[in-house]
Design a protein that fits this description.
Layout lengths: L1 H13 L27 E4 L2 E10 L7 E5 L8 E5 L3 E5 L4 E4 L3 H5 L10 H17 L20
Parallel strand pairs: 1-6
Antiparallel strand pairs: 1-2, 2-3, 3-4, 5-6
Helix pairs in contact: 1-3
Length: 153
């Protein structure tokens, strides 16, 4: 019951404003097909290999995201990437390409390995805000809108 109430709270808090960047939704042209298992896919940032998907959430109680083991370049940490940063998925190569640099990903808010559910709500809001602030418009300019579109089911 606690998870359902929290998911409702997350949806309510993230559903307020709309911008171009939708952190919790795959882009229509990214190549994601519902039901595709991305666990084990290689993840490539704009400036090189990032790591490997260890968990992919897209149809559950939390906003859609990829949990990525970034290996040794970030001291073996894991990072959570909203699926909105996925530029494209190559199923043949089993590779996910994201539109952020390793540096941008390194400076993203970190998830506490054992947070309370309410901490997750704040964490996902912080993560959405951070990645919205690093969103590049098609003309190469940073988005001036720090807020993100909501996550709805």
């Amino acid at each position: 019951m606690r998870n359902r109430a929290s998911a409702h709270r997350i949806r309510r808090r993230w559903g307020r404003e709309m911008t171009t960047f939708k952190p919790w939704e795959y882009r229509a042209d990214a190549g994601f097909v519902k039901g595709t298992e991305l666990t084990g896919y290689k993840v490539v940032a704009v400036d090189g290999d990032l790591g490997q998907v260890v968990e992919a959430e897209y149809d559950g109680p939390l906003p859609a995201h990829l949990y990525v083991d970034v290996g040794s370049w970030l001291f073996g940490h894991h990072v959570m990437l909203p699926v909105g940063v996925v530029e494209r998925i190559d199923a043949t190569e089993r590779t996910v390409y994201v539109d952020r640099t390793k540096d941008q990903i390194e400076h993203a808010p970190r998830v506490d390995p054992a947070p309370e559910v309410t901490d997750y709500v704040n964490y996902f809001e912080d993560l959405a805000s951070y990645y919205s602030s690093t969103y590049m418009l098609p003309d190469g300019q940073l988005s001036s809108k720090p807020r993100t579109s909501g996550w709805s089911k």
